[in-house]
Amino acid sequence: MERLIEYLKVLADPTRMKIIKFLLERDMYVCELVAVMDIAQPTVSQHLRRLKAVGLAEEKKEGQRVRYRVNKEVLAECQRELEIFLATPIKDIPQMKEEWERFEALVASGKVLSSCPPPIEDTHNDLA
């Protein structure tokens, strides 16, 4: 679960998500990403460092330039870890044992909803 959290933290940034999408289209140089993203070179480089730190991006030096690409194996691993996490019952996730036990106790005592404040009446009917 920790590895998945690291992937998701890095991917939670809209700019990094956009960079990943462009790198899925083709390998790109920083200068190309700067032009496409319309942000400063140091900012693009910082985003690429974060992507590289979790293995989602790779670099290849070509003389004075560096070409970046998505590490598709790591991206696939990220997808697999997310799918496994979502498919795994809560009770089987070691990092959620405490919360699951608390949930079961609340359900057994009938206090699940009673621990919540009463709902606020919605005077706006936006769904009509």
Widest sheet: strand ordering = 1-3-2
CATH architecture of the domain at 2-74: Orthogonal Bundle
Largest sheet: 3 strands, antiparallel
- As a percent range, the share of strand residues is 5-15%
User: How many strand elements?
Assistant: 3
Task: Describe what you observe in this structure.
There is one protein chain. The chain is mainly α and 128 residues long. The chain has a domain at 2-74: Arc Repressor Mutant, subunit A (Orthogonal Bundle), CATH 1.10.10.10. The protein has helices at residues 2-11, 14-25, 30-37, 41-53, 72-87, 97-109; strands at 28-29, 57-62, 65-70. The chain has a 3-stranded antiparallel beta sheet with strand order 1-3-2. Strand 2 (57-62) and strand 3 form a beta hairpin. 10% of the residues are buried.
Summarize it.
The chain is mainly alpha-helical.
Notable features of this structure?
128 residues, Arc Repressor Mutant, subunit A
SSE arrangement:
Layout: H1 2-11, H2 14-25, E1 28-29, H3 30-37, H4 41-53, E2 57-62, E3 65-70, H5 72-87, H6 97-109
Antiparallel strand pairs: 1-3, 2-3
Helix pairs in contact: 2-4
